[in-house]
């Protein structure tokens, strides 16, 4: 598994220590985010997060195949069949609850580890345990040795989450 993670560019992320979140700091940063200019406003000036920042912090690839959400049911079923030897895995429509999958002894652990790395660290939500079902073909691509542009996807996900928090008033 470690060799595969290195080949697809996720080795540095898999070796990162666990992170303790400072919710006060995150809330303060979210309050300083401005959607129109897409930057943080501080008394000393404006600051934004760039692709280079993502690369320096996470060391993920910024060159490769673009990551896209694929809702094609046929591709999702094919990915499930290849990764887990089943037609489908438990889901609630759009997301897969990883805690339910991990307790299933019939499912392969390798793909579940990649899914938990993506949903719990790279493209996380409030729970960190829900994996977007449309990204199953992406996991299949990882096991085929496909190199993806993780940096762009992570940066877009960050900007989208900041937009949701500030514009729609969602809780952090």
Automatic annotation (TrEMBL):
Residues 14-170 form the Aminotransferase-like plant mobile domain. It holds the Pfam family PMD. GO terms for biological process: meristem maintenance. It comes from the Eukaryota. InterPro entries: AminoTfrase-like_pln_mobile (IPR019557), MAIN-like (IPR044824). PANTHER family: PROTEIN MAIN-LIKE 2 (PTHR46033), PROTEIN MAINTENANCE OF MERISTEMS-LIKE (PTHR46033:SF8). This is Aminotransferase-like plant mobile domain-containing protein.
């Amino acid at each position: 598994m470690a060799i595969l993670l290195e080949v697809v560019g996720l080795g540095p992320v898999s070796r990162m220590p666990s992170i303790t979140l400072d919710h006060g700091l995150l809330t303060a940063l979210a309050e300083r985010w401005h959607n129109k200019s897409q930057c943080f406003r501080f008394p000393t000036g404006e600051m934004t997060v760039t692709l280079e920042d993502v690369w320096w912090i996470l060391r993920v690839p910024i060159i490769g195949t673009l990551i896209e959400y694929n809702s094609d049911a046929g591709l999702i079923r094919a990915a499930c069949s290849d990764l887990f030897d089943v037609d489908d895995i438990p889901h609630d429509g759009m997301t897969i609850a990883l805690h339910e999958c991990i307790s299933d002894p019939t499912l392969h652990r390798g793909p579940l580890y990649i899914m938990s790395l993506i949903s719990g660290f790279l493209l996380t939500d409030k729970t960190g345990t829900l994996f977007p079902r449309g990204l199953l073909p992406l996991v299949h691509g990882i096991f085929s040795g496909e190199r993806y542009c993780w940096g762009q996807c992570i940066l877009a996900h960050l900007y989208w989450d900041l937009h949701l928090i500030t514009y729609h008033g969602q809780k952090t």
